[in-house]
Amino acid sequence: MFENVGHVLYHVLIILFPILFYYQFLHKGAIEQTTKVNYRFLGTLFVMLVCTMSFPIEVTDGSYYDQKIIPFILAFLYGGWLTGLAVMVSMLYYLYIIDESNLLVMMLNYAVVSVFLVVCTNIYRNMTLKKKVYITSILLLLVTTTRALRFIHRDEPGEIFLTVIVSVITWISLVTAIMIIENLNIQMRLQHELQRSEKLKVVSELAASVAHEVRNPMTSTRGFLQLMSQDDNLSSAQKRYIDISIEELDRAQSIIQDYLSLAKPNKQGLDRINISVEVRHVLQLMSTYTNINNTMISHHIEEELYIKANKDEMKQVLINLIKNAIEAVGKGGSVCVNVSSNHKFVLIEIIDDGVGMTPQQVDKLGTPFYSTKDKGTGIGLTISFQIIELLQGKIEVKSELGKGTTFTIKLPVSPSTSSS
Length: 420
Ligand code: ADP
Ligand code: MG
Hints:
Layout: H1 5-26, H2 39-54, E1 57-60, E2 63-65, H3 69-79, H4 81-98, H5 103-124, H6 129-153, H7 157-229, H8 236-263, E3 271-274, H9 275-293, E4 296-301, E5 306-309, H10 311-329, E6 334-341, E7 345-352, H11 359-364, H12 380-390, E8 394-400, E9 404-412
Parallel strand pairs: 4-6
Antiparallel strand pairs: 1-2, 3-5, 6-7, 7-9, 8-9
Bound molecules: adenosine-5'-diphosphate and magnesium ion (MG).
């Protein structure tokens, strides 16, 4: 066996090197399953396959060892069933060229494994790295066991020992390959995310500076419109036009305010605030809005709950979420606001029975400029998530399409001993 160490190392290298080469020179992003075939990844797998099959190690007389199962497994798990099929067919064809003695058994074996892999691929994608390693290890164990059983059946116990050793080496190569792919995938995604947020920073700073410049002329226009509306000679229609203009200017103002806080989250000092009182204030403030929309809004508010936060920012978050809920339920719907606490956290729930969202939509929440509304800006939630995160809190979302949505804000309780 020892004279084969170099040969074994060659097989390990021929699996790991193409993956590293792919990420260094060929990649166009993370290796991920899509319906389209990633030809560069497929090419990489072919190289692995040909190199490992061309120079197998002869462990005992007539019994050869290589690592063709690794590109085969990776093809299904990371390339999808089409890539997997391509690799399997090429593998069997190459096997047919170099040694056709075991072809039928091989075909049967790999067909069974490929069915298992196709079933696995969909769940595999959402697994944690640990589970991915477990499931591939179990798969490899199954393959090894069937091989070992064959030797037991043939009464060749010496072969079993060798099978176990080569299988351990294959297992180490496979797990290492999966870890490299997963880690490099994470790095690719982080890099992508960083580029995106860098772009966003530039855009939001630009938007903020424009918004700042636009605010002043708007304030003076609003002032003059207000003066004009006090003129007694105006007809009622003219008065109504002026009122509408002022309302629209206010709406523009509030959008601009949102953009400004997107660029500059308030990092001023935090106070110990009574959140029960603040929620009541906001509900009062929103009552005109709910009246217009004919929305029932109920509440259960536990008294005297304190958190550390900035009052204005907290109000802004509550207004954003409650307004979204009211918009989601439409006319005649109902919204419920609950404030409660366990020992550590204050929980503010905003529950609506409105349109709801799909899991994909929920995933997108908080992404800047994501909005499904005609007049939406898509920054209300971005700011809200940002503010709550800065307060060491969390916003959790549960939603079902057509049934409704629950937003839960979790914030640490501010104990009474702390100074305000
Ligand atoms: P905007 O309200 O301007 O569209 P937001 O950031 O407040 O921007 O919300 C982003 C998107 O999230 C909304 O367009 C909507 O599709 C979705 N959304 C937010 N809250 C709810 C809710 N309670 N029910 C259903 N969808 C919601
Ligand atoms: Mg909104």
